[in-house]
Amino acid sequence: MKQRLVIGNWKMNGSLADNILWATHFRHGLKSQTLQDVEVAVCPPFPYLQSIRSILPDIVQLGAQDVSSECIGAFTGEISVNMLKELQCRYVIVGHSERRARMGERDADIAEKFKLVSLAGLTPVLCVGETEQERAHGQTRSVISHQIQTVIDRCGAHALRNAVIAYEPVWAIGTGVSAELADIQSTHAVIRAQLSDNGLDADDVTLLYGGSLKPGNSEEIFSLPNVDGGLIGGASLKAADFLDICWAAQTRPPEPEMKSTNNVRYQDF
User: Fold this and answer.
1) Which residue range is the domain that position 171 belongs to?
2) What is the pTM of this model?
3) Contact 160, 200 (CB under 8 A)
4) Cβ(194)–Cβ(148) under 8 Å?
5) How many folded domains does the chain comprise?
6) Are the beta carbons of 206 and 2 closer than 8 angstroms?
7) What proportion of the chain, given as a percentage, has pLDDT over 70?
8) Does the pLDDT at position 176 exceed 90?
9) Is 76 exposed, middle or buried (0-12, 13-18, 19+ CB in 10 A)?
10) CATH number at residue 140
């Protein structure tokens, strides 16, 4: 099995004091044993990137919550990909639904950011997902396919080989209600099929699930064969909860009750 990936997106939360406390608890929680086959990353607000790097240099990868579509110049308040690279970020989230909805980012804007991140040698985490209204109208597949295809058309399918795709149904983010297991599995299957249709080895692309993923449901979500990890929002703010999710992400044989689900291939949907 491939290595799992768990990314914590802190959004606009935290403080210097909170960061030290979080890191202390997280480091202490890892003392008992080592995570097996799990890579962990955290995406704090921009002002805290340096502090997280300094207090957790050997435990977690560093990620950014967004990036500018410009490289340099008079763009007040923006952060360039070269700045993120200097801060030793490995991952950069692009296309999060909150930026799509509140900042008016379009698929084309996100594709441009994706391209800049890829060219800089960092790993873009492309967020895709449907709204509640789009879901109700049966548009989940078409919406997500368009979001991914725009990146492929702008950057080429090869750019996705070294990227991460995170399926986050917009209606599940911050609501406490995650998607049904069958819905997660089928949507990830659609994504892999689209990647395959574009000439990629779809099984090599890391697919994450996000949207009210928490300690109570992480193990069963991670047991799905098409899920390679998670993009965690609110639950990543508590070190103990985030660590529990990381433990759940460790690769292990499927539980007996999940065997029938694990035998389903994405081609079957």
Assistant:
1) 4-268
2) 0.91
3) yes
4) yes
5) 1
6) yes
7) 92
8) no
9) exposed
10) 3.20.20.70
* DSSP codes of every residue in 167-200: E--GGGTTTS-PPPHHHHHHHHHHHHHHHHHTT-
- Are residues 209 and 5 in contact, defined by beta-carbon separation less than 8 angstroms? no
Contact 3, 246 (CB under 8 A): no
Cα distance between residue 217 and residue 224, in whole Å: 12
Look at residue 253 and tell me whether its pLDDT is greater than 60: no
Strands 91-94, 61-64: pairing is parallel
Helix (H) or strand (E) run with residue 209 in it? strand 206-209
Active site residue 137: no
Cα(262)–Cα(269) distance, rounded to whole angstroms? 13
The catalytic position among 96, 105, 134, 188 is 96
CA–CA separation, 177 and 265 (whole Å) = 25
* DSSP SS3 for 159: helix
pLDDT for 30 equals 83
Task: Tell me the C-alpha to C-alpha distance, in Å, between residue 153 and each of 13, 20, 99.
Answer: 35, 42, 21
pLDDT at position 36: 87
Chain mean pLDDT for the chain = 90
DSSP classification of residue 144: H
Which pair of structure tokens corresponds to residue 59?
């435990």
3-state secondary structure of 80: coil
DSSP 257: G
Catalytic residue among 39, 112, 168, 188: 168
Residues of the binding site for substrate: 9-11, 174, 212, 233-234
Clarify whether 96 is annotated catalytic.
yes
Residues 6+ apart with CB under 8 A from 32: none
Q: Are 192 and 202 in contact (CB under 8 A)?
A: yes
